[in-house]
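I'm stuck. Protein, please.
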Amino acid sequence: PLAGFLYLFVALPLFGANAVFLLERIFKQKFEYLEYFSLSLAIAMVFPPLLLTLESTAGILVPELPLLNTALLFLATLWLRIPTVGRIARPISHSIRVLPTVLIATFIYAVFLFALVTAYPFLPDSDPYYWLLKVRGEAEQLSLPTLQLYRPLFSSFVYIVHQTGGFELITIFKYILPFLFILVLFPLTLIARLFSSRIMQLVLFLIPFSSASFLLYSTMPIPQSILNIVLTYFICLLLHAYFSKNVFFYFFSGSLLLPMY
């Protein structure tokens, strides 16, 4: 399992981190650490599956392909990084003051998700079983749906976790996909840190719990769950663009919704 998580880290978050580095150089930006992590995770959920879907549509598909994509992207960033080695300094973030509230919110999310996935030994509804059988059939045939078919990015995302990370499909659907919901804490922190009151910060972190349907579809192993997480990044990055007066985040948040799920 440890090796699987390492491969998964390379295929998804590391891909996002390298992509953000390229965006910094292309658009002359210098992100603080929280911005960097938030953008990296947003990219990791959308663009590696999109790239894999495009490659599969072109007839290129092997289990090692997501790792190769990250390696090629890393080589591109390495070429751009060489002239700036030793001179990269990120702005100091004022996010440290929200850290205690983030830890409390993380604990609440983790306890909720742990209770949710361990409450019963089966998947919570019929829809997850439909997608499980669909993805299992694609895995057996070593194929992915083309871009014009119904929600292909979900199949590509699960393919990366299954084939590259080596996790069983039932483990992905039962545990990994529901726990992705905790990633909404990163973009929410961008907004929560604007409040000095710990209570207001915690209220903002708990906003996703205010809608039963949003919470249900965000923790169920179906395409809508990842879409809801991406929508949270979209809204928070739009708000961050407004408060930070940085139009880059407007365009980036819009690009997250182009592929959809």
Q: What stands out?
A: The radius of gyration is 19 Å.
